[in-house]
Amino acid sequence: MPCRTATEITELLEGWLEADFSFRKVGPTAEKIAALSVSDQEFILDWVKRVASSNLEVAWQFARRAPDLIGTMDRRLMEAWVLGACDVYDRQGLRHALVVMEEADHFAERQLEMTAGVLFEDVAGVLGNFLRGLSGRRLALEQGKPPHTDTEKIFLPGVLARFPDPEDNFKLAKAMVALLWAQTRFGTFRADLPAACAGFPDPALALGQLHALETLRLSACIARELPGLHRDMERLKGQLGETLPAAWEGFARRLADPEASVEDSLILLGDACRLPPFAPWCYQAALRPEAVAAAFAARQEKEKARLRVKLGDLLEEHNRLRTPEGETDPDKPQGYDVEVRDEEGRLDLELTLDGLPVAPPEDVKQLLASVYLDFGEIPPEYLVPAGEGDYDPRLLGDTGKDPDAVWQGTYHEEGARFYSEWDMGRQHYRKNWCVMREKDVTPVFDDFHRQTLDKHAGLVKHLRHAFEAMRDENRLLKRQVHGDDVDIDALVEALADARDGSEMSDRLFVRMHRAERNIAVAFMVDMSGSTKGWINEAEREALVLLCEALERLGDRYAIYGFSGITRKRCELFRIKTFDEPYNAEVKARISGIRPQEYTRMGFAIRHLTDLLKGVEARTKVLVTLSDGRPDDYFDVYRGQYGIEDTRMALLEARRAGVHPFCITIDRDARDYLPHMYGAARYIILDDVKDLPFKVSDIYRRLTA
Predict the structure, then answer these.
(1) pLDDT at 407 over 50
(2) What pLDDT does 176 receive?
(3) Mean pLDDT of 602-617
(4) Segment 262-270 long-range contacts (CB within 8 Å, at least 24 positions apart)
(5) How confident is residue 399, by pLDDT bands cut at 50, 70 and 90?
(6) Of all helices (H) and strands (E), which one includes residue 275?
(7) Of the residues 188, 305, 457, 568, which has the maximum number of CB atoms within 10 A of its CB?
(8) Contact 627/538 with Cβ under 8 angstroms?
(9) CB-based contacts of 72: which residues, under 8 Å, 6+ apart?
(10) Could you give the residue range(s) of every CATH 3.40.50.410 domain in the chain?
């Protein structure tokens, strides 16, 4: 491609920047760009076009500065600079974005950081999965400076760039995460660290030396738990010339004992304080005891209340299941005990009631583990089952602000979930762009469920038989060593081989194999205003029939509705969660499904993908029931922007192992559904009334 002339570039800039209306003089800038190489021209012009889709002034400022910067600034750095300005524009407005545009020199100073460094947003997903695989309390990963943990979250900076190789910087981030996890897992914060250091002449120095002692102890723990990562940590230190001072070698030997604890570090602190300050290692992060104390204070009473209430529920269920009734003595005290096995990095907690083992649900296990990590034991008062009314529901986290009331307030984003959105013009995500809240559908206790079953009585019977057959269906496995019958095809081939002098195969049988179902399905129901009337009724009928059939099949399933009006009010409506039984409440919620606002889809797909990721299942499916294309109220989401964001959300779902599928009645859907879902991942119904009749065939297709 030849270089563009100044005249050609002027025409492009005038169009993208609307120069006729803004009176921007783009000619001199076009001449500068025309003097550059083809690749530099295309890079600058591509980004001007992208940014102009978000804000013309930010795009103009980029166009003015880019020709002078491109010779001295790495392209990745320039992208980070302009995207940073766009992100600031999204969050804080134009004035703050222009300040970022003025800081191009500051970005240029971070050349090494941006060319070799790893960005938090690029590694957060991988490191989050790594964290979930480690034992102990579940820790969230967030961006923040300096790197530290408050025992609820691990904070990492936006960029890590201690090494010229990006792979080494990633391993440095992983090492930081591992050491901060080890602080929570192996009891660094079971001691009052500020109080332990307060008696020294220089408490800040003492805290730094204590941090160093704990780093030695926890590094030894990581060497036992994660030997491969520990080797990387040692290599990274070696590259930076970081060694253990000779005076600290005795401390390291003592703290390497598997039985060593934070108490051993406190015993050695006096001797350590007589030494020069320890130079922190590259992965050491920071020690923030004040942040830990704040998190512990917020967590302590809540976890105690939640654990006692959960244990009370377990006790009530245990007594209800005991038979015969006369066997239970109401005056006899019933007590829980916990046996903790914390060996070789594995944390196992066995709960017993009156000496008999109890299988606690996952949330109780997590509560017990969290309490143990705080105290090194489970205090007896935490194991006393709570009675009715013992705790304020607000302490239990069971009540929250009314979402409808919150939307009306000034601080309507408080407590909401945020989801990024793909901007097709910018070719990048708008970070934390959609403000989402989960709400419960208001249940309507009427006769809709019964009327639907009566209306479709013949179909209900057919569906139940069809789904029972899916549950019990067997698969014929051919060419087996052992089996129920002879595989004629395999036998003929084996005889032919023998006739030719080849070795005869022993795989000559067929046998029936019962298929094991391990499936989780989330149904995402369009509750936009366009579903008003018979579409809404058909959706609800289809959901009733689906639930009746799925109950026979035994697959785990959830149902959520979605709607919203602009990015600031995205709503997901709980109809049935994965853990809920199909009961009268759920039936009433299905009856209560009513049309709401518009059809912004990306946030709903991303949220339900996150929910499916948390479900243990071999096959995960996300089914959308919708009557049309993505849309929103006087918003850029209308048209191609919404289609591209939805497509990107679906790609994210597929990368997460979720199989998306769409059922729609939009006759124009062939214009956009193949692009969004792919050729084989949708079905268009000419009449949504056909949906109840198609449901078994569609579900079989999805979960085969």
Answers:
(1) no
(2) 96
(3) 92
(4) 262/187, 262/188, 262/189, 262/190, 262/191, 262/214, 262/217, 263/191, 264/217, 265/210, 265/213, 265/214, 265/217, 266/191, 266/196, 266/210, 268/213, 269/196, 269/197, 269/200, 269/206, 269/209, 269/210, 269/213
(5) very low
(6) none
(7) 188
(8) no
(9) 108
(10) 448-453+517-703
Helix and strand tally (H, E) in the chain? 29, 19
Read off the amino acid at residue 123. Answer: V
Phi, psi (deg, nearest 5) at residue 659: -100, 110
Cβ contacts of residue 81 below 8 Å, gap of 6+?
Answer: 73, 100, 101, 103, 104, 107
Per the structure block, which two tokens stand in for 677?
Answer: 């879902």
- CB of 593 closer than 8 Å to CB of 539: yes
Tokens of 507: 């795989």
Question: CA-based angle 501:506:507, to the nearest 5?
Answer: 120
**CA 668 from chain center: how many Å?**
33
Dump pLDDT digits (tens) for 163-212.
888 899 999 999 999 999 999 999 999 999 999 999 999 999 999 999 99
Q: In 477-487, which positions are buried (b, 16+ CB within 10 angstroms) versus exposed (e)?
A: eebbeebeeeb
pLDDT digits (tens, 9 = 90+) for 521-534: 999 999 998 888 88
Cβ(323)–Cβ(304) below 8 Å: no
Query: Region 601-610: what's the mean pLDDT?
Result: 95
User: Residue 110: pLDDT band by 50, 70, 90 thresholds?
Assistant: low
C-alpha distances (whole Å) from 700 to each of 176, 240, 470 are 46, 58, 8
The CATH code belonging to domain 448-453+517-703 is: 3.40.50.410
CA distance 426 to 644: 12
What separation in angstroms does the CA of 24 have from each of 28, 61, 64? 11, 11, 11
Give residue 188's pLDDT: 95
pLDDT at 179: 96
- With tokens 């939805």, the residue in question is 646
Structure tokens, 594: 């009513």
- Specify burial of residue 34 (Cβ count, 10 A radius: 0-12, 13-18, 19+): middle
Q: Which of 536, 600, 586 is nearest to 557 (CA)?
A: 586
Closest CA to 280 of 220, 346, 208: 208
Is the pLDDT reported for residue 53 higher than 50?
A: yes
3-class secondary-structure state, position 677 = helix
Within its chain, how far is the Cα of 284 from the centroid?
A: 26
Distance CA 635, CA 530 (A): 17
Residue scoring higher pLDDT (332 or 550) = 550
Residues 6 or more apart whose CB falls under 8 angstroms from that of 36 comprise: 3, 44, 67, 70
The answer, as to whether pTM is greater than 0.90, is no
Of residues 298, 306, 295, 296, the one with CA closest to residue 398:
306
